[in-house]
Q: What sequence folds into this?
């Protein structure tokens, strides 16, 4: 008596597990078909430039070509954005349970896939050409190039200090200050006023020293010659 009551429940539970696995297979198949359809439509639009390839009826036909199972599918909610060239594929499909009692109550599922129309391939050579045509900034005496005028190395902050204090002062790059090759010759007194910058490792006896000025020129990257990239801004490009 107990076996006759438990056995049908066991059979129903086993069939339910099997059918859940079948639903997962359906989902995987629909998702795979969406990905393949999306990639094909992306290329087709790039070649033909016709929005007809993104028509829901055309998409439904393509999807049915890749679905081996007997799945009723609709792509009517799929959309295409002409401005951004975005393609959003929306697949609505229904699956009915194999049990006669619940056969009239189908389960509805939705799968989505987002892609963009194919716009070609940027080769490495093209990227190199574009990079070489980039505008950079250099100074007359500098040995590096800069990608932005906002680089702090191009915006010097000059301070007037006593020569005796140089022993304890450091620039923002952490270096000690040494005499400028252009104006730093001779013997300095402890109380003598000298000039230093926020960046660099030279002190100057003359405020008008050429080393304290920045004659900035704008050039193309391919014209930098032997200049190295600025450690603060150019290396980030």
A:
């Amino acid at each position: 008596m107990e076996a006759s009551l438990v056995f049908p429940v066991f059979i129903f539970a086993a069939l339910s597990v099997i059918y859940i696995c079948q639903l997962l297979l359906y989902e995987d198949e629909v998702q795979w078909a969406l990905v393949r359809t999306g990639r094909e439509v992306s290329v087709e639009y790039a070649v033909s430039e016709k929005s007809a390839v993104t028509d829901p009826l055309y998409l439904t036909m393509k999807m049915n070509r890749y679905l081996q199972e007997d799945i009723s599918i609709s792509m009517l909610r799929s959309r295409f954005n002409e401005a951004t060239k975005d393609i959003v594929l929306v697949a609505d499909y229904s699956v009915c349970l194999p049990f006669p009692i619940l056969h009239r109550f189908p389960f509805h599922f939705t799968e989505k896939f987002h892609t963009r129309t194919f716009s070609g391939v940027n080769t490495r050579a093209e990227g190199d050409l574009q990079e070489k045509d980039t505008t950079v900034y250099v100074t007359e005496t500098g040995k590096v190039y800069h990608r932005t005028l906002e680089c702090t190395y191009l915006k010097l902050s000059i301070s007037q200090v006593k020569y005796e204090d140089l022993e304890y002062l450091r620039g923002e790059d952490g270096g000690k200050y040494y005499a400028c090759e252009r104006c730093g010759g001779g013997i300095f007194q402890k109380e003598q006023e000298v000039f230093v910058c926020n960046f660099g490792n030279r002190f100057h006896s003359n405020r008008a020293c050429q080393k304290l000025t920045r004659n900035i020129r704008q050039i193309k990257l391919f014209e930098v010659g032997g200049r190295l990239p600025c450690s603060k801004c150019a290396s980030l490009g």
In short: The mean pLDDT is 79. The longest strand covers residues 86-95. Residues 175 and 201 are 6 Å apart (CA to CA).
